[in-house]
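Lecture 7 notes: from sequence to structure.
We start with the chain below.
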Amino acid sequence: MKKINVYGSGCKNCVNTAELIKKTAGEINVDVELAKVTDLEAIMKAGVVSTPAVSVDGKIVHSGSVPDENTVKAFLS
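Predicted structure tokens for the same chain:
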């Protein structure tokens, strides 16, 4: 199981990112534990510069935009 964090204020792009990850994980049969991190201090501590940002198992893999489906598949594989 992959632990995924979506960092952001809860804006539309952050919500869309989380939904895309959940949908894509289901399509490719990857178990994920998805968390939305909205606490500014936690976002800064993770080293996020721009949101939405995504980490997989503690490593930032995307930031600054909603990733496309192929990008999500790549970091879930």
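Points to note: Helices lie at 12-27, 40-45, 69-76. The first helix runs from residue 12 to 27.
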